[in-house]
Amino acid sequence: MTYTKILGTGRYLPENTISNNDLKQFVDTNDEWIFTRTGIKQRHISTGETTLDLAYQASLKAIKAANIKASEIDIIIVATVTSDYAFPGVANLLQAKLGISNIMAFDINAACSGFLYAMQIADKMIKSKAYHKALIVGAETLSRLTDWRDRNTCVLFGDGAGAMIIGTSNYNHIKDIITGSKGDEEMLLYCKNPDLKSIEENLVSPQDHIHMNGKEVFKFATRMMPKTLNELLERNNHEISDLNYIVAHQANSRIIQKAAKDLNIDMDKMYINIDQYGNTSAASVPIAIDEAIEKGYIKKGNLFATVAFGGGLTWASALIEY
Ligand code: ACO
Q1: Residue located nearest, by CA, to atom 31 of ligand 1
Q2: Domains, in order of start, for the chain
Q3: Active site residue 211
Q4: 191 is catalytic
Q5: Are the CB atoms for 290 and 12 separated by under 8 Å?
Q6: How far is 153 from 233, CA to CA, in rounded Å?
Q7: From atom 36 of ligand 1, which residue's Cα is the shortest distance away?
């Protein structure tokens, strides 16, 4: 039987940060509102580095942590909603930048759940024995899609990337992954690609931005996070108390607090870094896992769960023994 495990993780954030007070120059907002409603204090915003650049830096760190050569990687999956080009994908450009030839590389789009979707695909491909080592990345420059005139959304998002190498193992470390979606509620959170329009209309129409029904997304997130985690635990014969730690998608600290309350789990078992980064979409989960490992919240042999939700609407969770 082929099993899988995490071999290494890495993250990269662009250097430039924007505080809550800095946002006052664009919109009518304040630090107190943003922090009490979301837990965010600042976000990293790229000043020139593209999604590929962020993905590349995070990947180099994950490859180093895994103690492997880039040439050992036989599949790359990048989860992103902000690829540099419509095509080729970030994964293809990343493959070239890492100097790896002739391997499968592709992007997926499942918004903030994308990294766990990528993990599920890679996990199954390795367990099928067709592949041996996967580089999976969540990377975003959401600042490109942000409407800096809309205080309902612009305060929430940030740029960043997280990467992970997973590979074959004799022991079953990556135990289970759940993914799901609900396309009939997609308009709660969306950003349109350019409409199919006449050339004349295209000449005058601006690029679309992120639109969100915050209250409904909040309700969806607080309902779905405990639901998918409970399902994950139940189908693997575990109790919530068996978990050493939970790494949730960082969209709002109040969403994480509500999920912890409903799951009856202490907040000191929930990772929080949204104060530093805001919501980095597909990058949020791998950045948080990398930090939680680095800070010793997740130790070798610990059982942890990770959970995400996002546009689509999508959700995902994974149960992993590190
Ligand atoms: N600064 C000051 N005031 C603001 C701001 C701001 N940045 N934004 C909104 N307000 C005002 C509103 O206009 C409103 O004023 P009004 O009552 O006069 O109309 C008031 O604050 C309250 O606004 P609400 O929308 O009711 O605030 P709420 O408590 O619901 O918090 C929030 C809004 C933070 C967006 C919350 O609903 C939320 O976090 N939702 C989930 C969002 C989320 O997780 N999105 C990411 C999904 S993942 C992905 O795929 C990207």
Answers
A1: 37
A2: 3-171 (3.40.47.10), 176-321 (3.40.47.10)
A3: no
A4: no
A5: no
A6: 33
A7: 214
